[in-house]
Amino acid sequence: MTRYQHLANLLAERIEQGLYRHGEKLPSVRSLSQEHGVSISTVQQAYQVLESLQLITPQPRSGYFVAPQKAQPPVPPMSRPVQRPVEITQWEQVLNMLEGHHDQSVIPLSSGIPDVSQPSLKPLWRELSRVAQHNLSAILGYDELAGSLALRQQIARLMLDGGSVVNADDLVITSGSQSGMSLALLAVCQPGDIVAVESPAYYGTMQLLRGLGIKVIEIPTDPDTGISIEALELALEQWPIKGVILVPNCNNPLGFIMPDARKRAVLALAQRHDIVIFEDDVYGELATEYPRPRTIHSWDIDGRVILCSSFTKSVAPGLRVGWVAPGRYHDKLLHMKYAVIGTNVPATQLAATAFVREGHYHRHVRRMRQIYQRNREMYTCWAREYFPCGICVTRPKGGFMLWVELPEQVDMVCVAKQLCRLKIQVAPGSLFSASGKYRNCVRINCALPPNEKHRDVMQKLGEALKVAMEEVATPGVLSDS
Amino acid sequence: MTRYQHLANLLAERIEQGLYRHGEKLPSVRSLSQEHGVSISTVQQAYQVLESLQLITPQPRSGYFVAPQKAQPPVPPMSRPVQRPVEITQWEQVLNMLEGHHDQSVIPLSSGIPDVSQPSLKPLWRELSRVAQHNLSAILGYDELAGSLALRQQIARLMLDGGSVVNADDLVITSGSQSGMSLALLAVCQPGDIVAVESPAYYGTMQLLRGLGIKVIEIPTDPDTGISIEALELALEQWPIKGVILVPNCNNPLGFIMPDARKRAVLALAQRHDIVIFEDDVYGELATEYPRPRTIHSWDIDGRVILCSSFTKSVAPGLRVGWVAPGRYHDKLLHMKYAVIGTNVPATQLAATAFVREGHYHRHVRRMRQIYQRNREMYTCWAREYFPCGICVTRPKGGFMLWVELPEQVDMVCVAKQLCRLKIQVAPGSLFSASGKYRNCVRINCALPPNEKHRDVMQKLGEALKVAMEEVATPGVLSDS
User: Per the UniProt record, which residue ranges are transmembrane (chains A, B) (predicted)?
Assistant: First the structure.
C-alpha cells in the first residue's frame, strides 16, 4: 500500500468512528504532513482519494470538510417467493457468467471472488512453495479420507470462535463449501425430496439442488433478520421437507446476520419437525462485528445441524479447502466423500494448516473484515450516487456482497445482456430464485477494490439501469431502437 | 540408484530378453568388472541381488548360472458371478483398509498407491514450488469450471497415444478418476438404475455405485481377455441396464488388456442396446506393451463412451488431477461438476501441465512401465515360492496389481484380520464383488519396491495362507486353539 493510500484509510477510519464529525473541518494539509511525517503532496493525494470517495468536500480557501451524511437508501422489504416446491432452472445463465470470469477483459461484478491481492496472503504461498520442497511423501501420496489431521485440529480450534465445540475426528475436509454441501445433501436426501431455502438463495446451492434432483421451497426472508421462522413453520406443516439450507452469518446474497434468538428459534423448529439444518458458514468469518457471530451449529445438541464452511472466501478460492461438521451424519458423509469425490489435495491442506497455525490466518481475516466493510460502504455510496431513484440496498453485516432492488419494472436479465457488450458482468437476481423471482434485483461483488476503474463500472451500471427504466416507461423507444 | 543396483537391473533385463538363457553360465565377476568399469565388490553385490531374486544360482567353484525357468502358476479361470442385479455392501471393510494406509507401521499390500519415490518425479514438485512463487493470481483464484485450458490441451495430446482424437473443449478436468466416474454416473444414471461391471471390479467403483444408489450386475470376466461379451449380451437382454463400467486396459484387479477385437465388439454391443460405456483408463498408460493399447473411446462414433482417467497411478495421487472425455454427456457432466464438486485446485494443475509439456511425463511413465513389470515378476516369483500349492495368479499386461486365487476353502477375510496383527494389510477378493464372491482371492500391490522387507511380507502372507489351509483341512485344530 502506498503512503497516501495508507493515510487516506486512516482518515476514513477516523471519520467512520466519528472522531471527525459530519460537516466538521479537517486538519490542514500542512499539519497532517507534520503529524504523519509525510510530504505535502502525499497528504494532498490522500485528500483527493477521500474526496473521490465523497467522504470529504473541499471548500475554496477554507480547506477540507467532512461531507454531510447522506440519506441511506432503504433496505429491501421481506421477500415473498412462491410457497410451493419447484424445480430449478437457470443453469445456462450461471454457465455464461462463469465463463465470463475467465475473460480478463471482463469486470466480474457478478462473481463471488474474494480479494486475493492483499500482502497478508504472502505467507500462504510461501508455505505452499515450502511444502512442495520439503514434504514430498505427503504431497505426492494419498491424503487421509477425512482430510489432514493437523488441518482438522486447526479448524476445530477456529470453530470455537463461532461457539462450536468439536474435535478433529468430527470434521471432514472437502474441496470447498460447495462439495461439502453436496456431500451433506447426498448423505441426507434422495432425488425428489424437498429442501427449504432462504429466498433469495445463492445460485450455486440452487444448481446443486437441481443437479441432485431435489426440489426446493423458497421461504420468505428478511434482509435484516433472515428467514421467516413463521413461514418456514407453515411450510413444514404443509410439505414433507427433509431439511433447510441456511446462511445465517453474512448471508449470501443479503448480508444479514440472524440474531441469536432467531438462530435458536429455527433450531428449535428443526427439532420439533425433525428436519436437518444445512448451515453454510462460508462468509461467517468476515462479519464486521467482533467477536464473530455464533453458528446455529453451536447450539445443536442432537447432531442435526450439518455445518459447511471453507477458506474460499476468507483466504483464497485456489486452496480448495473446505470442511464439514456432519454431526450424526458423519459416517454416511464420509462414505459419500470416498464414493463421489475421493481424497483431497494434500499440498494446499498443508499450506493452509501452517497459515492458520502460525497466526497468519487471523491477521489476514482481521484485515479483510475492515477492507470489505470499507468496500461495501464505498459501493453503497456509488449505488446511491449513480443508480436511479427508488432503489433499495441491503446493509450487510459482513462479507462482500450488496443486493440492490430496483423498481419492479426493471429487467436485470436484459440489462445484464447489454452490460456484457461493455465487458461488465452482473448477477441478475433471478439466478437466486427457482421460481423466477428477483428479475429486478442485482447482486454486486464489493471485493473488487473500490478504485477509479470500478467506480467507472458502477457508473456505467447505473446508466444502464436508468436507460432500462426509461425504456420501460416509454416502450415505444425500445421497439424503435 | 546405486551402482550395483544399476548393474543388477541391466543383467536382469538381459536375462529377460533371453541374451543369457536359462541354465547358461554368466560372465565372471572379473570380466563384468572390466566391462562396466566397476569394482569387483560392486559386481558381487549385483550378483547377490539377482541371487536373492532367484534369477541366478551360484555353483561352487564354477560361478553364477541363470536359474532354470520355473513353471508359472496357472491363470485363474473366467469368473462366474451371480447373474442378477444386487446391492453393494462391504463399506466397513474398505474403510478399515483405508484407515490402515495412514499408519506408517502398516505395510499396505492392499492399497492402490503407486511408487512415488522415483527421481523422475523431481521436476513435478519443482514445478509445484515454482507455480507457488510465480503464478499467484492463478493459484489463489478460482479455476475455470472445465479445468485449466493449458492442461486440457496437454491431455488432448496425450490421449492421441490411446487413439482418441479430442480437443481441449471436449475435456473436463476432475480431481481424480473417482470423481470423474462419479460425475459420469451422476450425468447418466438415477438411483435404482442398473449398471453392469466386470467381475471382479475395483472396490472404489463398487462403493461409488452404492453411494449413488445404483444397482450392479456383475458380468463373468476372463483374466486374460476381459469381460464376457456373450454374458453381457445375455444380461442386456434380460435387464434394463443403463451402462457398463469397463477397465479394458491393465484392468484393476485382473491386469488384462482386452484385445482390440473384443473392445470393438463390446462397443458394437453397446450401440445395439443403446447403453453407455464408462471406460476407466487410469492404468492404461502403464501397459508394458509399446505403443500403449487403444481405448474403446478411440472407436466411439456417437459419444456413448465416457472416458475417465487421471495422473493418480501414472504420476502421483497427491496431484488430484484427473479428466473425463464425456462425449454426448459433456454439458450434463459439466453442470454436475459445478453442482456437486466445484472447481479444482489450480496449483497442481499448473504443475502437471508443465510436467507433461516439458517431456518429464513421458520419461517418467516409460521408467515406471519397466519398474512395474520387474516388480510384478518379482512378486509372482515370491507367490510361487511362499504361497501354498494350488494357487492361480494373473499375468498382468501392465499396472501394478496381482490377483491371486487360492483354493476354494481359504477365507481371505479371516486371513486379512490375522495379518492385521502382523501390521500387514491385504485386500480380500470379497471387496471386489457385490455378491460376496472371491473370498478365496487376494489383490496384491506390486508398486511396493521388491526389497527384503517386502519379500519378508510376502513370506509372512504365504505362511498365513498355509496355516489357513491347514486349519480348514483339520477344523479340530482350529476349535481347540
Answer: none
What is the pTM assigned to this prediction? 0.87
Kindly give the confidence (pLDDT) of every residue in chain A, 481 residues in length, as a single tens digit, with 9 standing for 90 and above: 688 888 988 888 788 777 888 788 999 999 999 999 999 999 999 999 888 877 888 888 888 998 877 677 888 988 888 778 887 777 888 888 888 777 888 999 999 999 999 999 999 989 999 998 888 888 999 999 999 999 999 999 999 999 999 999 999 999 999 999 999 999 999 999 999 999 999 999 999 999 999 999 999 999 999 999 999 999 999 999 999 999 999 999 999 999 999 999 999 999 999 999 999 999 999 999 999 999 999 999 999 999 999 999 999 999 999 999 999 999 999 999 999 999 999 999 999 999 999 999 999 999 999 999 999 999 998 998 899 988 999 999 999 999 999 998 899 999 999 999 999 999 999 999 988 899 999 999 999 999 999 999 999 999 999 999 888 776 554 444 3
Contacts of A314 in chain B (CB under 8 A): none
A426 and A465 in contact (C-beta within 8 Å)?
no
Whether B345 sits inside 8 A of A175 (CB atoms) is yes
Q: Which residue in A94, A132, A140 is closest to B132 by CB distance?
A: A132
ipTM for the whole complex? 0.86
d(CA A404, CA A441): 6
Rounded to a whole number of angstroms, the distance from the CA of B346 to the nearest CA of chain A is 6
What domains are there in chain A, each with its CATH number? 3-66 (1.10.10.10), 90-114+363-470 (3.90.1150.10), 119-361 (3.40.640.10)
A344–B348 C-beta distance less than 8 A = no
Alpha helices of B141-191 — where are they, by DSSP H?
Answer: 149-159, 177-188
Q: Which three cell numbers stand for residue A436?
A: 423466477
CB of A318 closer than 8 Å to CB of B346: yes
B437 in the Ramachandran plot: left (φ > 0), alpha (ψ -120 to 50) or beta?
beta
State the Cα–Cα distance between residues B253 and A204, nearest whole angstrom. Answer: 38
